[in-house]
Structures are given as structure tokens and as C-alpha cells.
Amino acid sequence: MKLFELRKQLKTEASQLDIDQVDVDFIVSNVLNVKRTELALVDTITDAQKKQILSAFEKRKQNIPVDNIFQKANFFGYEFKVDDNVLTPRPETEILVETAIKYIKENGYKNVLDLCTGSGCIAISIKKNVDVDITASDISLKALQIAKQNAQSNKAEINFIKSNMFEKIDGKFDIIVSNPPYIETCEIKDLDTEVREHDPILALDGGEMGLKFYNIIHNNLRKHLNDNGMLIMEIGEEQKDMLISLFNDFNYVQCIKDYSGNDRIIVFKK
Ligand SMILES: C[S@@+](CC[C@H](N)C(=O)[O-])C[C@H]1O[C@@H](n2cnc3c(N)ncnc32)[C@H](O)[C@@H]1O
Fold first, then answer.
1. Residue 117 near ligand 1, beta carbon < 6 Å
2. Homologous superfamily (CATH) for 3-62
3. How far is the CA of 203 from the centre of ligand 1 (A)?
4. Which fold has domain 83-269?
5. What is d(CA 36, CA 66) in angstroms, rounded to the nearest whole number?
6. Radius of gyration of the chain (CA)
7. CATH 3.40.50.150 residue ranges in the chain?
8. Which protein residue's CA is at the shortest distance from atom 10 of ligand 1?
9. Tens of pLDDT, residues 18-75
């Protein structure tokens, strides 16, 4: 079959079903193992390839996100394995990584703690760009197994620890980064089906007001952050003021907006 005919057919179907047409090309390029930009160069596909493409598109129609269909996601230019045990890395979290790298370089920081590491995307992306010691922790053993595989496939040396927040964390760090669960418990039921059914609830539920994990971080920060050290966290779009008030015994540095113009990454200094 001619590939352009199949792409056209699936994109028409996608737009009728309110599925992003980009997802069709994501599926096709993954099945054919070519870059999206090279799809126009492919003329015909075999029956077996067509079958695989249609089967993946069926899954997409059942609200399974494309990253979960192929169990991989691109983040900060690196490939990460993902499954239902880890949050699929989000583009806005790349801003946290960029910010951390900038401050590590500016201040000559030497060691980093990534709390709530999930797939390991933050820790691994930082380690690939700056020469620092990185400890990364999560309460989920299954998430840590994925994170370890990602560190291996990306050739990044990370010290992984299974820990309920700071419980098993020793010592002090120059910089602590975290994208903790921050969605208000009562809002979980209103999330898109794709998020609710394919990202683990453990990665989303931030308790009352979404502040549970920020409170824990605040209560342990003096003990684990070096003097002149920095805390960089991803936050919910309504949480900036509450967090500035919660961390009022630290120096507020800045809050960076995401690509949709929402407050997303907050920075404090000790
Ligand atoms: C929002 S996800 C962030 C994952 C990854 N850092 C990212 O940015 O894509 C939050 C992570 O926190 C972990 N988590 C939830 N409760 C925790 C706890 N009590 N202690 C440590 N990690 C926890 C979850 O398993 C999940 O991997």
C-alpha cells in the first residue's frame, strides 16, 4: 500500500475523533523506524507494517497516549522508557532541567538530589549535561526499575535510592530538584482519561491543595540543603503564591512560566 494514502486516511479519522494528527505520524514513524521528517520519502509499506500501524492507531483511539503505546518518550533530546508505573515526562519539565543546569554552571554546584524521580528523566538529563554527583529517589520500586534502565540506556551514572521522600536520604546537597505529585486530590477525577488511566495515581496526587509534598520538602530542607544551595521545583499553575508563603524562611529567587504562560518552575535559595 502507498504510505501517503494510509497517512491521509488515518489523519482524516484522527481529526474526526479529535485526536492530534501529529499522533498519526508518531505512530507511523515508530512502526517504520524512521524519523518523522523522513516519512515523505517512504513510498510503499508491507501488509505487516500496515497491520502494525492500524493496531497502534486502534490503541490511540482507546485513549492510550502514543508514548505509552510504544513505551518510550523523548525528553530533553534523550529517549526514555516509560510504562504505566511512571509519569510520562512532560515538555514543561524540561524548563526545570534547563534551570538546574544554568544554576549548577553559574554556582559550581557539585551534588544534586532529585526527589520523586519517576522515569529518572530530570536526573539523567542533568547528569548528561553537567559534571555533578546525582542522587535520585522515589517511593516506587517499579518506577526506580524503569529509572535505572533509563540511566543505563543513556549511559548516566546516578545513585538511585528507594525512599519515602527524605526518610532514607543522608547528607546535604548543593541543589535539590523535584517534580513532586502536585494535583489536588479532588481534581484527579476531572483529569483527561489519558492522564487518569495511564499515569500512576502515585505520581499525580498531591493531597489537599496539592501541597502535601511541598510541605514535606519544606520541613526537611534546612537539614538537606547546603548553605547557598538551591531548591528548584515544578509547581501547579495556581500554587506560586502559596509556595512563596510556605518557603518564606528561604530566599525566593524566581518563578518561570511554561510554554502556555502558566507559573511552572519555582526557585528558592538558602
Ligand atoms: C509527578 S511524578 C514526577 C516524575 C519525574 N520526576 C518527572 O518529572 O517526570 C512524581 C513522582 O513522585 C513519586 N512519589 C510519590 N509519592 C512519593 C513519596 N512519598 N516519596 C517519594 N516519591 C514519591 C511517584 O512515584 C512519581 O514517580
1. yes
2. Ubiquitin-associated (UBA) domain (1.10.8.10)
3. 5
4. Rossmann fold (3.40.50)
5. 14
6. 20
7. 83-269
8. 203
9. 999 999 999 999 999 998 889 999 999 999 999 999 999 999 999 998 999 999 999 9
- Cα-to-centroid distance, 30 and ligand 1 (Å): 28
Hey, is 231 helix, strand or coil? strand
How many angstroms separate the alpha carbon of residue 180 from the centre of ligand 1?
A: 5
Is the CB–ligand 1 distance for residue 235 below 6 Å? Answer: no
Cell numbers representing residue 56 in the block: 497502534
Per the listing, cell 479529535 goes with 18
* Residue range 126-175, pLDDT digits in tens: 999 999 999 999 999 999 999 999 999 999 999 999 999 999 999 999 99
Is 111 touching ligand 1 by the criterion CB < 6 Å? Answer: no
Question: Residue with the nearest Cα to atom 8 of ligand 1?
Answer: 179
3-state secondary structure of 257: strand
Measured between its terminal Cα atoms, the distance across the chain in Å is: 62
Beta strands in the chain (DSSP E): 72-75, 78-81, 111-115, 133-138, 159-162, 173-178, 225-234, 251-257, 263-269
